[in-house]
Write a structure and sequence with these properties.
It is a single chain. The protein has about 600 residues and is of the alpha/beta class. The protein contains 21 helices and 26 strands. Among the domains are: about 10-175 and about 215-270, 3-Layer(aba) Sandwich (Rossmann fold), CATH 3.40.50; about 465-600, ANL, C-terminal domain (GMP Synthetase, Chain A, domain 3, 2-Layer Sandwich). It has a 9-stranded mixed beta sheet with strand order 2-1-11-10-12-13-14-15-16, with helices on both faces. A 5-stranded parallel beta sheet has the order 4-3-5-6-7, with helices on both faces.
């Protein structure tokens, strides 16, 4: 594995060391155009970063100044990021899905002097938000054709001031590990966003530790599909891949990911569990809609694969008959699934939410290992991760080198190490609430360490449902069980301080409507369909199929069917697609109250 011989003390040291090793290679990144996938060489990449850095200097940006970055994943995002770092400015990435009001808050709170924007739509949002950001002096646009007195094109910025190469590098290398590199605002499931201050040393140490246990080299390629504005993709799919010489391909959008996987044929991809759940659900849907023989073959292959997976991961011998069956299953089922994701995947990385064990076993059986990890924005982000050498499904792996993990008496996961943030920007009291006087960061997650050092997350501390009867329920694993059903698109459990738990179900409308047509049910709109008694009964029965192994008090006693998908725009999802439980509950308060009123007093 190609990597630095010692942990880089700063991201700038990482950047220039990478350039020194790979400057003559023909492709650092690729992006899609109408003509296909277009590469940018390392030498051209460095040259453009150099010019953008000089342009920022001409705008008066220097060490410690904040510069915002509002863009989808694309090469210009990386150019702007590295340019800011090398002149020792502090960049403030903003999710491209945020509203003008939210953008205004982040610009004002960070005191950003300038902002990079990608498209006309993002420029329009900044113009609307600008009144809330008095410190904002300039806007630079990535797309050609962004016009107006208040915006300058990136090409203009690159032409303003060419720094002497030696001076540029020397200035960049003056950065110290404790210097602030970025302020990343937590999307948060409750409350106003907090700016997480991450230093050069925080992120560089995580890159070094991560690449020491995850095998990536210059022979690999990745597809960057999660938002670069979040630390998971930024550390994993940006800095770590770049540091190891991995070719980075930028997905055009989440909608184009299936096509982008097929075209770029990556070997490593970082994603959230929802992507894997969708791939699994699609494979199951194709099988269920096929002939009885085809459906039977798929389910047989799934059983064979799971049995083979369990023995393989337990390092137990594989009986000859099972080895033969798995080879047949691979030939007629699993190789087709590998082909759908490009055919070259060595492993996936998963984070951001719990990965259902059933999905993980299916992918492993298909020759597509998913290495689940765990971390937070405040920890740069990786705390622990499974590896190919040490993989335990149902866990988030062992702590990475240099990172300590402890479990508090109440079950909360505590962590300490060089990756823990400097603090929340402008919020010393909030910082003191999560970092104690011994340097332990209190994650807010509940978990346990097994005898072999593998960490298992059981739930968010703040998400635990405490019923009026005193029962404690961890909702996230139950929600993951429900989402495995082909008729259920999403699920949210509620019931804190209530008599019993309930679940809100968003159907997989395509599957449900297909079933309804086959059942002779007529409807004019989705709300009407979901109100029909036979549909309610069908979805409740499907939901309960996956909850048979739960304790009685954990099973939702009532289900509320929701026609509209949860969305970022409605505030029900964070930009990384986590559920904002309190927002969902507030948005459906009347329906929830009515459900409890009708329910009487089910036994807990």
């Amino acid at each position: 594995m190609t990597q630095l011989t010692a942990p880089p003390p700063t991201l700038n040291a990482l950047f220039f060391a990478t350039m020194d090793r790979f400057r003559d290679r023909p492709a650092a990144v690729r992006y899609r155009t109408d003509a296909g996938w277009t590469p940018i060489s390392y030498r051209d990449f460095e040259s453009r970063i150099h010019r953008v850095a000089g342009g920022l200097g001409s705008l008066g940006i220097g060490p410690g100044d904040r510069v915002a970055l509002l863009s989808e994943n694309r090469p210009e995002w990386a150019l702007a990021d590295f340019a800011c770092l090398t002149i020792r400015a502090i960049d403030v990435p903003i999710y491209p899905t945020l509203t003008p009001k939210q953008i205004g808050y982040l610009l004002n709170d960070s005191g950003a002097k300038g902002i990079f924007v990608s498209t006309q739509g993002q420029l329009d949002k900044v113009r609307e938000a600008r009144a809330e950001a008095p410190a904002l002096e300039w806007i630079v646009g990535f797309d050609r054709g962004l016009t107006g007195d208040d915006v300058r094109p990136l090409e203009w910025l690159e032409s303003q001031n060419v720094l002497d190469s030696a001076v540029w590098r020397a200035t960049a290398m003056e950065a110290k590990p404790e210097d602030l590199a970025t302020i990343i605002y937590t999307s948060g499931t409750t409350g106003e966003p907090k700016g997480v201050m991450l230093t050069h040393g925080n992120i560089a140490s995580n890159v070094a530790a991560g690449t020491s246990v995850l095998p990536v080299t210059e022979t690999d390629s990745c597809l960057s599909l999660l938002p670069l504005s979040h630390i998971f993709e930024r550390m994993t799919g940006h800095y770590s891949m770049f540091n190891s010489g991995v070719l980075i391909n930028y997905a055009q959008s989440l909608e184009t990911v299936p096509r982008d996987l097929a075209e770029t044929k990556p070997t490593v991809v970082a994603a959230v569990p929802r992507l894997f759940e969708k791939i699994y659900a699609k494979a199951l849907e194709v099988a269920v809609r096929g002939t009885p023989i085809r459906r039977g073959i798929f389910l047989w292959a799934k059983r064979v694969g799971e049995a083979w997976t369990d023995l393989t991961l337990a390092q137990q011998p594989i009986p000859p008959w099972l080895a033969i069956q798995r080879a047949v299953a691979d030939l007629i089922v699993f190789r087709k699934i590998r082909a759908r994701v490009g055919g070259r995947i060595r492993y996936f990385l998963s984070g951001g939410a719990p990965l259902p064990a059933g999905v993980a076993r299916f992918f492993y059986a298909a020759g597509l290992p998913i290495l689940e990890g765990y971390g937070l924005t405040e920890t740069s982000p990786v705390i622990s991760v499974n590896t190919m050498a040490h993989l335990r499904i149902g866990s988030v792996g062992r702590p990475i080198p240099g990172v300590e993990v402890a479990i508090a008496p109440d079950g909360e996961i505590l962590t300490r190490g060089p990756n823990v943030m400097k603090g929340y920007y402008g919020k010393p009291d909030a910082t003191a609430e999560v970092i104690d006087d011994q340097g332990w960061f209190h994650t807010g997650d509940i978990g346990e360490l097994d005898g072999d050092g593998f960490l298992k997350i059981t739930d968010r501390k703040k998400d635990l449902i405490a019923t009026a009867g005193g029962k404690k329920i961890a909702p996230q694993p139950i929600e993951a069980m429900l989402r495995q059903n082909r008729f259920i698109g999403n699920a949210v459990m509620l019931g804190d301080r209530r008599r019993f738990p309930i679940a809100l179900l968003v159907p997989n409308h395509e599957e449900l409507e297909s079933w309804a047509r086959q059942s002779g049910i007529e409807w004019t709109n989705r709300a009407e369909l979901l109100a029909k008694p036979e549909v309610i009964a069908h979805l409740e029965a499907e939901a309960k199929k996956h909850l048979r192994d739960l304790a009685r008090f954990e099973v939702p006693k009532r289900f509320l069917l929701v026609a509209r998908e949860f969305s970022i725009e409605s505030g029900e999802l964070t930009p990384k697609l986590s559920i904002r439980r309190r927002v969902v509950e507030a948005n459906y308060q009347a329906e929830i109250d009515a459900l409890y009123d009708r329910a009487g007093q089910p036994d807990e």
